[in-house]
Each structure stands twice: as structure tokens, then as C-alpha cells.
Design goal:
By secondary structure, the protein is mainly α. It is 67% helix and 4% strand. The chain has helices at residues 2-11, 20-39, 43-62, 73-83, 96-119, 124-145, 149-160; strands spanning 165-168, 171-174.
């Protein structure tokens, strides 16, 4: 699915028309949608938001590379394993309060990562590392809340597969919002 998502982004010219920072702002918006869905235990909306977070993170990555993308889902899964403790998976038990602590940990991790991207706009290596972390986060959260991440990605791709739009100020605006 990752390859298809990246090909979709290539076809819509994400590389060259947006910045990692602009995509991070969209990522934060999608994470806020996840948090809202999580608060009311809306499984479908959580699934939708996690898939959208993954798509946006892939576009963030795509926006900063100069040759064909080489990033694959397996790399994201490997990175996810490295990051689990950083966003609080180890805190999970049966207590709802532990989920809340984990979400706060995820929010802080995302905020710190976005700040890293903002501070290192001229340092592509640091930005690339931060983007890869953003790619891994939705998989970790999906696992934490018992959602099939592959299904999230599939549904997100199907939602955007035929989407058209145009670029306005470094942001891709879908046709239905024009």
C-alpha cells in the first residue's frame, strides 16, 4: 500500500509543491481527529484518522526527497518497533487512564518531531529521520488501540485513489473543497 500511496503523491506533484513542515501541520490536524474519535470510542473514525496520518506522513517524506522514493512499509514497521516505548506503549494495561497517558505521550512525541522538522529545515538528514518517525506513529497507535493498521492504510488509499485537486500556497486542496 505504501508504494501506491507514494505513487499517488507523485502523480499529484507533492514533491516540489509542498514542504515537510506544511505536511506536519496537516499531520497534527489528522492526529487531533484521531484524538476526538478516541475520546468517544468511534472505531471507524479512529481507523480513518490513522490511515490519513499515514498518508500525510508519506507525503511529508515524499516532499523532501529528490529521487524516486525508496521507503517501504517494512521499514516503517521496523521503525515502529524502535519507537514503541517512546510514545508510551509500555504504559498500556487494562486501565483507561493508561490509554490517556499513552495518547499524551504520542501527542508530545509528535509535537517534538514536528519541532525537529521546523528547526532543521536546512538539514535534510534530520528532517528525513523525523519524517520516518511520523510514518511509524500511526502503526504504533493502531496496535495500541487494537485496530488493524493494514486496513487503515487500505481504506485511506481507497479514499484518495481517484482524488483530484490543486495546489494553493503549498497545500493540496481536494477538488470537493475548491
Amino acid at each position: 500500500m505504501t508504494r501506491r500511496i507514494l505513487e499517488w503523491g507523485e502523480a499529484r506533484k507533492f514533491r516540489g509543491n509542498t514542504t515537510p513542515y506544511a505536511q506536519c501541520m496537516k499531520y497534527i490536524e489528522e492526529f487531533a481527529e484521531f484524538q476526538s474519535a478516541f475520546a468517544i470510542d468511534d472505531h471507524d473514525e479512529m481507523e480513518d484518522a490513522l490511515g490519513d496520518m499515514y498518508v500525510v506522513a508519506c507525503m511529508c517524506y515524499l516532499s523532501m526527497i529528490s529521487d524516486k522514493p525508496k521507503f517501504e512499509y517494512e521499514q516503517a514497521k521496523g521503525l515502529a518497533e524502535e519507537l514503541e516505548i517512546e510514545i508510551g506503549k509500555a504504559l498500556l494495561a487494562t486501565s483507561p487512564q493508561r490509554y490517556t497517558v499513552a495518547m499524551v505521550g504520542a501527542e508530545k512525541f509528535i509535537t517534538d518531531t514536528v519541532q525537529l522538522i521546523a528547526a532543521n529545515r536546512k538539514q535534510p538528514v534530520m528532517t528525513r529521520i523525523a519524517c520516518r518517525k511520523l510514518i511509524a506513529i500511526p502503526a504504533i497507535i493502531a496496535d495500541m488501540v487494537g485496530i488493524d493498521f493494514d486496513e487503515c492504510c487500505y481504506k485511506a488509499y481507497k479514499a484518495i485513489e481517484h482524488r483530484k485537486g490543486e495546489w494553493q500556497g503549498g497545500v493540496f486542496v481536494k477538488e470537493s473543497d475548491l
